[in-house]
Amino acid sequence: MQVLNPATEQVVATVPASSVEEVDAAVARARAAFPAWRAVAPGDRARLLRAFAERIDLHAEELALLEVRQAGHPIGQARWEAGNLRDTLFYYSAAPERLTGLQIPVAGGVDLTFKEPLGVVGVIVPWNFPMPILGWGVAPALAAGNTVLVKPAEWTPLTALRVAELALEAGLPEGVLQVVPGEGPVAGRRLADHPDVRKIVFTGSTRVGKELMAACAPNVKRLTLELGGKSANIVYADADLEKAAATAPYAVFENAGQDCCARSRILVQRDVYDRFMGLLETAVAGVVVGDPEQEKTEVGPLISAPHLAKVGSYVPSDAPVAFRGSAPEGPGYWFAPTVLAPADVRGFPAWHEEVFGPVVTVAPFTDEADAIALANDTAYGLSGSIWTRDVGRALRTARAIEAGNLSVNSHSSVRYWTPFGGYKQSGLGRELGPDALDSFTETKNVFLSTEL
Ligand code: NAD
After folding, report:
1. Which of 28, 144, 187, 229 has its CA 20 to 30 A from that of 310?
2. Which DSSP state fits 291?
């Protein structure tokens, strides 16, 4: 597999793709490593995870630069991503000593529950946030005593391969964390089909997520899905309009719009629509799109030529473009931030489908009920933002929107210590936060009779 720098179209590296036999061999190693890993004393497993996190920290700049080159992420963002992997590992390094069960009152004895690891876990990672998404699966899985295989995306295997080397250097035993680079339908699919892989954590498209649900069914394999999104950014007339407009471009154009949480639909209350659009135009003009290695760059290129073509198909020559930002010319998969304002959003493809690029569609709404109905008119339900000074309305709207992660007067949605995941076709299960450990363990109930 050729890894290309999306900002230059130059080859960065060539990585061999794992065959089904190679995946099977890796699964066998992970299975062999499992009994010893689950038996590591909690305090020692915690120490190993902290050493792993420290190793990531020591190599954060190297990892960030790898991400810049293979994924085109701006260097500042890539540094944050390496830090997020480190922090997620630190957070779950506190879990081994805290994986407590319950003691439940029963007659005639004692009832205890235990949280036991599942065995071999497969983590299938997309190309849009290779390091954080790897960490969200790997860290809790290892902390709970599982062994892990990571299948990175075809375009972006380099950081995952380096992270696995750093895990070994930190002292994690052989076979506990392995990376199997390869093609989705071959290496990824094999993890889903393999009877010895007990759980799949998949982040990617809704289409592949549905396929994997079916592939996991014959073995009743556990599955966590983080899929697509079409999130709404709702701006009420009483909001701090300057702040809402200044931040809206970053809520959708960051990572060149290749973000499952991208607020790619902006809903603006009709009374302030014209004023908001004026402010938004200024904000979009200020977005710095360019060379990801430059410190001041805010948005880089798209990941690949086919993806550029797909994003471009949502902005044909007769598209209702309100205004656009700028992007470099020449080599690289560049796409200028684009704001669309169709007369009617019903049936408008960029309003309904996940573009996964720097394209946002804006629509006016009349009142709270109209905003909620428009926001929920989608098969997805991942995140969203609500801008208003009315606390009651903020909470009513947040509770009414069918999505897993809402933010009020901000666009933050993913913190490693709070739960993250989707409603409807945006996913299944939750990652991160205190509850993620439940999806990497089975609960065992044991009753001890104390009768004579
Ligand atoms: P994708 O589904 O094409 O690929 C994701 C991963 O799955 C890659 O590693 C790929 O190799 C693998 N894969 C592909 N086909 C497979 C198959 N048949 N069997 C097993 N594995 C297979 O998605 P993508 O284009 O890489 O990523 C973009 C999508 O990911 C978007 O829809 C985006 O919304 C979603 N995403 C969701 C979240 C979230 O947390 N909800 C986060 C990031 C990205």
Report:
1. 187
2. -
Q: Is 226 tagged catalytic? A: yes
Residues 128, 67: Cα–Cα separation, whole Å = 10
C-alpha to C-alpha distance for 97 and 87, rounded to whole angstroms: 18
Q: Tens digit of pLDDT for each residue in 238-247?
A: 999 999 999 9
Tokens of 266: 């902006």
Give buried/exposed letters for 216-231 (b at 16+ CB in 10 A, else e): beeeebbbbbbbbbbb
**Token pair 């009142």: residue:** 367
Q: Comparing C-alpha atoms, which of 219, 225, 222, 232 is closest to residue 203?
A: 225
Question: Is 404 touching ligand 1 by the criterion CB < 6 Å?
Answer: no
> Alpha-carbon distance 216 to 232, whole Å?
32
The answer to whether the Cα torsion of 341, 262, 246, 308 is positive or negative is negative
Contact of 436 with 419, CB cutoff 8 Å: yes
Tens digit of each residue's pLDDT (9 = 90 or more) over 371-387: 999 999 999 999 999 99
The answer, yes or no, to whether any atom of ligand 1 lies below 6 A from the CB of 189, is yes
Q: Between vectors from CA 35 to CA 214 and to CA 439, what angle results, nearest 5°?
A: 40
What is the H or E stretch that residue 117 is in? strand 109-117
Residues in the chain: 452
Contact 260, 382 (CB under 8 A): yes
Could you report the per-residue pLDDT of 93-146, keeping only the tens digit for each? 999 999 999 999 999 999 999 999 999 999 999 999 999 999 999 999 999 999
Separation of alpha carbons 416 and 137, rounded Å: 11
Taking the alpha carbons at both ends of the chain, their separation in whole angstroms is 67
Name the token pair of 180.
């199997």
- The crossing angle, in degrees rounded to 10, of helices 42-58 and 158-169 is 130
- Distance between CA atoms of residues 448 and 452, nearest Å: 12
Note the pLDDT tens digit of each residue in 322-381.
Answer: 999 999 999 999 999 999 999 999 999 999 999 999 999 999 999 999 999 999 999 999
Name the token pair of 322.
């309100």
Q: Is the CB of 229 under 6 A from ligand 1?
A: yes
The 8-class DSSP code of residue 257 comes to G
**Rg (alpha carbons) of the chain, rounded to whole number:** 23
Most informative mutation of 190, 200, 227 for ligand 1 (most atoms within 8 A of CB)? 227
- Residue 182 CA to chain centroid, in angstroms? 20
Q: Name all domains of the chain by residue range, CATH numbers in brackets.
A: 2-227+426-449 (3.40.605.10), 232-415 (3.40.309.10)
* Token couple for 440: 């990497």
